[in-house]
């Protein structure tokens, strides 16, 4: 769901019908909403809809689509560029074998439905659930162990495909750092900026401060190749067919160019987050870190380096994402004002272990300080 869904769904139904008629040059007899609005990652809103029209021979036809709509109000991230996301998806679809959804069209004009958006044909299949996590319940854990293993084999194969893409030849150079810094310097600077945003300008979280300092002091000297980075590369961002083959890689809003270790470590950290971090025993068939690395190196022909560094990088990044998400949920009334999610969550639990910071003391100290600062602000 979306913390702050602002899309006018009635306006959407009218205007998207007109837009789609123009984009596909079709005359439809009806448009229905299948699901709306939904922002599974507390970010861009996703609307599933269907249209009824006719084939060339006059027989009735049912078509289903997905619209990704840029947030109008507060979002998980400070800025969004759905037009750039659509550009990446289109280039991958047109020039590579990476499985992505079929893009129908892109609309940068916010006046059409209230925000920029793009539309894809709906890819049939199933997506591992995020909430509750697919490691705990749902169709994935209901699979036999060999089926669960296939989910990850397929996923890692797609990740290796993404990393093999010649992103410069696909005219995706706009993803390069614009300031002349190397990709890791740019990524660390991005964490610093996101820290300011996620905390609402109230920095001073000792765990995040320690993590950022560690990243600056321990950065690898050899970054190796620079590849197209998916960013949020986790099985809940993949559509799987009934035969468990990967059908479409979703959610490109964290895309960049980076060392391949950044994505692989995101996957290994996410697996720890969705099991160890949440107190869930890793189901049989789900790979551990060693198995993920071996599968990726076999699929890609690459040797990974400095994976521990990039796991800590992703632990800091996900801790900041959950900080922002927690603050959004508090402001939306979905959590009480004194909820500790922004400072104590499954990601911070793992990060404290990685950095050797006492978890309880850190969480209590930081949350208490935050509340004291809020009281001070209210009294000013």
What labels describe this entry?
5-stranded antiparallel beta sheet, Phosphorylase Kinase, domain 1, 380 residues, two-stranded antiparallel ribbon, single chain, globular
Provide an overview of this structure.
- By secondary structure, the protein is α+β, with helices and mostly antiparallel strands.
- It folds into two domains: 9-121, Phosphorylase Kinase, domain 1, CATH 3.30.200.20; 145-379, Aminoglycoside phosphotransferase (APH), C-terminal lobe (Aminoglycoside 3'-phosphotransferase, Chain: A, domain 2).
- Helix content is 42%, strand content 14%.
- The chain has ten helices and nine strands.
- The chain has helices spanning 9-24, 82-95, 145-164, 183-198, 206-217, 260-273, 289-300, 307-331, 346-355, 359-379, and strands spanning 30-38, 45-54, 60-69, 103-107, 117-121, 227-229, 238-240, 246-249, 256-258.
- The chain has a five-stranded antiparallel β-sheet with strand order 1-2-3-5-4, with helices on both faces. A two-stranded antiparallel ribbon has the order 6-9.
- β2 and β3 (60-69) form a beta hairpin.
- α6 crosses α8 (307-331) and α8 (307-331) packs antiparallel against α9 (346-355).
- The longest helix has 25 residues, at 307-331.
- It is globular and about 65 Å long.
- The model is unreliable at 361-380 (pLDDT under 50).
């Amino acid at each position: 769901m979306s913390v702050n869904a602002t899309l006018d769904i009635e306006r959407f139904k009218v205007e998207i019908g007109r837009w789609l008629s123009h984009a596909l040059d079709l005359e439809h007899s009806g448009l229905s909403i299948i699901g709306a609005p939904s922002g599974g990652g507390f970010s861009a809103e996703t609307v599933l809809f269907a249209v009824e029209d006719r084939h060339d021979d006059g027989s009735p036809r049912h078509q289903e689509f997905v619209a990704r709509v840029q947030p109008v109000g507060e979002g998980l991230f400070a800025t969004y560029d759905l037009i750039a996301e659509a550009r990446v998806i289109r280039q991958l679809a047109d020039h590579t074998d990476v499985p992505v959804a079929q893009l129908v069209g892109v609309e940068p004009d916010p006046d059409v439905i209230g925000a920029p958006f793009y539309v894809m044909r709906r890819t049939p299949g199933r997506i591992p659930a995020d909430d509750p996590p697919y490691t705990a319940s749902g169709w994935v854990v209901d699979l036999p162990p060999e089926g669960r293993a296939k989910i990850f084999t397929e996923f890692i194969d797609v990740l290796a495909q993404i990393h093999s893409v010649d992103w410069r030849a696909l005219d995706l150079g706009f993803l390069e750092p614009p300031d002349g810094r190397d990709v890791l310097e740019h990524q660390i600077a991005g964490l610093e900026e996101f820290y300011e945003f996620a905390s609402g300008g109230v920095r001073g979280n000792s765990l995040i401060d320690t993590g950022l300092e560690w990243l600056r002091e321990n950065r690898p000297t050899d970054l190796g190749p620079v590849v197209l980075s998916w960013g949020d590369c986790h099985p809940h961002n993949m559509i799987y067919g009934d035969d468990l083959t990967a059908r479409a890689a979703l959610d490109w809003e964290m895309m960049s160019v980076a060392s391949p270790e950044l994505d692989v470590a995101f996957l290994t950290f996410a697996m720890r987050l969705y099991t160890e971090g949440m107190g869930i025993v890793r189901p049989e068939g789900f790979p551990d870190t060693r198995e993920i690395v071996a599968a990726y190196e076999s699929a890609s022909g690459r040797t990974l380096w400095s994976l521990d560094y990039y796991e800590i990088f992703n632990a800091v990044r996900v801790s900041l994402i959950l900080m922002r998400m927690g603050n959004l949920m508090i402001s939306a009334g979905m959590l009480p004002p004194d909820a500790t999610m922004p400072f104590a969550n499954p990601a911070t639990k793992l990060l404290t272990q990685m950095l050797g910071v006492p978890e309880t003391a850190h969480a209590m100290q930081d949350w208490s300080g935050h509340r004291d600062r809020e009281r001070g602000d209210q009294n000013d």
